[in-house]
Amino acid sequence: MTSMQTWQSADEVDNAIGKMADQLGALLAARAIDHPLMVGIHSGGVWVAERLHQRLGLQEPMGQLDISFYRDDFTRIGTHPQVRPSDLPVPVDDRHIVLVDDVLQTGRTIRAALNVLFDYGRPASVVLAILAGRDGRELPIEPDVVGLYAELEPGEQIKLTGPEPLTLKRGRVDPDSHQDGAAFDADPTARSGLDPSDQANSHTSGQASGQANGHSSAQANSDSNSHANDDGNGHANGHSSGAG
């Protein structure tokens, strides 16, 4: 049982995304990165990435990652995620990636996302952009770009709801429900259609499968100067994207 109330309205979330776009534009310019590849993590990260992609006027299509079966705490949290195939429109080798998620908490979602990315190739760097940062880190991961920070009471969680409009809710979540930033998209109308066994194969799709475990956060950080390894907060139909 949950008790969630609106914490950031649609206008406030839009302002936070505008702040992210300004920070990201300045960071990319400082690093002389002209053509970044933006990649959002399902589902909340994709919603945020779409808005950043538009604000920055990027021409190249953005990518999408589903990390459901890459989390190292998947069996422990016992979720039944809505499965969606990852989609990277171009090769990631030697590309500068902007990895986007909605809420950063434990860091486990980002770590899983990096493992997926490295299944597809070896990026030149990874910049981590997060809509809402909070405490609760379990891995040494920090974002390069943050829209806002939340100071929460013990037991409180944040969730991004969407896709239209985007709002952030906060409140207490029952310990038996999806927590730990591991809530996944439970919307039966969400993009899916793949059997879990098919999904596990879809991430590699001919890529270097097996690299996932070999590319830990420390290795990704050396490539990216990002603080990659994510956070974790699943990505649920907009109802559970935060907390991660």
Automatic annotation (TrEMBL):
Alphabetical keyword list: Glycosyltransferase, Transferase
Organism superkingdom: Bacteria
Coiled-coil regions, chain positions: none
Region (Disordered): 159-244
Phosphoribosyltransferase domain boundaries: 30-145
InterPro entries in the record: PRTase-like, PRTase_dom, PyrR_bifunctional
Pfam families reported in the protein's UniProt record: Pribosyltran
Signal peptide (UniProt feature, chain positions): none
GO molecular function: glycosyltransferase activity
Biased composition (Polar residues): 198-227
CDD domains: PRTases_typeI
Keyword Transport attached: no
NCBIfam families registered for this protein in UniProt: PRK05205.1-1
Record-given protein name: Bifunctional pyr operon transcriptional regulator/uracil phosphoribosyltransferase
Natural source organism: Lamprobacter modestohalophilus
Highest classification ranks of the organism: Bacteria, Pseudomonadati, Pseudomonadota, Gammaproteobacteria, Chromatiales
